């Protein structure tokens, strides 16, 4: 009996915990990410396609068959929205919880459906554009290209399925449009996963156009068209792919700005060392500039080792210490040997000056409009870590004072550690965690007299263990297996950067 009561209490306790977690999540979720708004966005996608479908029937007669066909097509479009939602729930459930991204996908879908409907209007009876030509002109690759570059391949496949399905319904349930659209989606998503230059999109558009042409030829179930028409259709497929690429190039900056998304194309532009902030760093804080370049090499190697975004790691490493531009002389790498400006300051003041470079860096980054992922890494690269040197120095001074005047009742016996810790937040992504470790390891490696592989391995293990035990890596989504690969990458890269050179003879 007692065992039964115990189990019942445990079950009720778990139910209360689940309910509390549900209420907490509901309270902490901002209104714009509530599921109800996601339903509204899905309804917007369906209504947009339905209105495009209805536009060609406006002003027509009240034929019952036509009305029933229109209603059934609208139901099919609703089914397409539901299937796309299910696809996203399986592959990228986090995207369904971000209504901003859902709205972006809905708008991207219109980049295919709206031009397709306009082309169908242009190919209506009495118009100059033949219907077979109009079908091959549909920019079926525009939506998957845009979505893949902005949000990744799963989002590209999902919006490609929806736009191809919707275009097929608009074109009278055309199997040709559906299959050609699926082929264009597959090729576009595979090609654009790691696009880094806008010029690459033109080449991708050409390849997608050729793939659409092959799919169209494979679907021919009637006598082959005359040579002029076949040639025109072939050219139309290629033009369709190029139009999709040009549309992607034109719309990409607008979507990046409106939805705060940073693509690899934008990151690659920031790898230019001629950026004004990096030029200032090279002139005003050359030690920090060189340190940032070395951290970038370490971070890129480690990110590649675990499949993180190596381009983001490199770019963020370039800019992570730009806050040191305000007072470069107060940082060791920029100071001359001998007298240090911190010799005349209290440890508490020195730590405040050092820790301020994070806020100063964030201000400079905002002023120069650096993308949000770089801003986050600038803010997180020290986490809530301890400024160990000045904390230790303050402890030594406190001990010396107590030895001189004697330990009185009520006097401090330890230095308050919270005054020597960064404000945070802790690293929240793998790239941020990698840069936090690379920053500390590169700085510490400069103090090694003999940077042998064994010494470097011990140094890397020691610093990673300190950060791990200080809970600085709790939120960066890095597994222990990935952390091991990161350490190996650090050791390998440091060994190559700090390897011993043979002494040249004096001439």
Major sheet details: none
The count of helical stretches stands at 21
The rounded distance between the terminal residues' Cα atoms is 95 Å
CATH architect. name of the largest domain:
Orthogonal Bundle
Number of domains: 2
Q: In CATH, what is the class of the largest domain?
A: Mainly Alpha
- Shape label: elongated
Find the structural class using helix and strand composition.
Answer: mainly alpha
Number of β-strand runs: 0
H/E element order: HHHHHHHHHHHHHHHHHHHHH
> Helix amount, in percent?
over 70%
Low-confidence blocks of residues: 23-27
Report the mean per-residue pLDDT as an integer: 85
* β-sheet strand percentage: under 5%
**What is the name of the CATH topology of the largest domain?**
Arp2/3 complex 21 kDa subunit ARPC3
What is the rounded Rg? Answer: 30 Å
Tell me about this structure.
The longest helix is centred in the middle third of the chain and has 33 residues, at 227-259. The chain is elongated. The chain folds into two domains: 32-265, Arp2/3 complex 21 kDa subunit ARPC3, CATH 1.10.1760; 274-385 and 421-497, Hypothetical protein af1432, CATH 1.10.3210. The relative contact order is 0.06. The protein contains 21 helices and no strands. With 507 residues, it is mainly alpha-helical. The chain has helices at residues 2-28, 35-55, 64-91, 93-96, 99-122, 131-137, 142-151, 153-170, 175-191, 198-218, 227-259, 264-269, 276-284, 286-306, 310-319, 347-367, 372-380, 388-405, 430-445, 453-469, 480-497. The model is unreliable at 23-27 (pLDDT under 50).
């Amino acid at each position: 009996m007692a065992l039964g009561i115990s189990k019942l209490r445990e079950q009720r306790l778990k139910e209360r915990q689940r309910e509390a977690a549900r209420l907490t999540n509901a309270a902490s979720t901002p209104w714009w990410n509530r599921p109800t708004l996601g339903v509204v966005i899905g309804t917007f996608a369906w209504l947009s396609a339905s209105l495009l479908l209805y536009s060609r029937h406006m002003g027509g007669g009240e034929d019952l068959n036509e009305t029933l066909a229109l209603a059934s097509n609208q139901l099919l479009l609703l089914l397409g929205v539901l299937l796309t939602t299910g696809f996203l729930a399986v592959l990228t459930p986090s995207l369904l919880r971000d209504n901003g991204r859902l709205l972006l996908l809905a708008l991207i879908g219109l980049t295919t459906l709206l031009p397709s409907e306009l082309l169908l209007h242009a190919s209506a009876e009495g118009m100059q554009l033949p219907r077979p030509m109009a079908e091959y002109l549909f920019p079926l690759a525009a939506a998957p290209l845009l979505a893949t570059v902005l949000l990744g391949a799963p989002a590209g496949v999902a919006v490609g399925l929806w736009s191809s399905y919707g275009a097929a319904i608009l074109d009278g349930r055309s199997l040709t449009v559906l299959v050609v659209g699926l082929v264009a989606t597959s090729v576009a998503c595979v090609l654009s996963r790691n696009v880094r230059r806008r010029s690459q999109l033109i080449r991708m558009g050409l390849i997608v156009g050729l793939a659409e042409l092959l799919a169209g030829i494979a679907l021919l179930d009637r006598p082959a068209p005359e040579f002029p028409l076949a040639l025109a259709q072939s050219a139309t497929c290629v033009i369709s792919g190029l139009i999709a690429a040009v549309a992607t190039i034109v719309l990409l900056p607008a979507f990046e700005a409106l939805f705060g998304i940073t693509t690899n194309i934008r990151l690659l532009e920031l790898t230019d060392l001629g950026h004004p902030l990096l030029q200032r760093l090279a002139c005003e804080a050359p030690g920090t500039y060189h340190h940032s370049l070395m951290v970038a090499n370490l971070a890129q190697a480690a990110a590649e080792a675990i499949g993180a975004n190596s381009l983001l790691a490199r770019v963020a490493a370039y800019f992570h210490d730009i806050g040191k531009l305000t007072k470069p002389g107060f940082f060791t790498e920029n100071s001359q040997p001998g007298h240090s400006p911190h010799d005349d300051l209290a440890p508490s003041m020195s730590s405040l000056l050092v820790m301020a470079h994070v806020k100063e860096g964030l201000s400079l980054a905002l002023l120069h409009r650096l993308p949000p992922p770089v801003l986050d890494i600038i803010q997180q690269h020290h986490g809530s870590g301890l400024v160990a040197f000045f904390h230790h120095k303050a402890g030594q001074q406190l001990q010396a004072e107590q030895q001189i005047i004697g330990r009185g009742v009520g006097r401090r016996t330890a230095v308050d550690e919270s005054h020597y810790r960064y404000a945070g937040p802790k690293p929240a992504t793998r790239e941020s965690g990698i840069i936090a470790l690379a920053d500390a390891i590169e700085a510490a490696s400069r103090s090694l007299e003999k940077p042998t592989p064994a010494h470097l391995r011990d140094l890397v293990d020691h610093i990673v263990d300190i950060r791990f035990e200080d809970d600085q890596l709790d939120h960066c989504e890095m597994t222990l297996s990935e952390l091991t690969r990161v350490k190996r990458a650090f050791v390998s890269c440091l060994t190559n950067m700090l390897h011993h050179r043979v002494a040249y003879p004096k001439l």
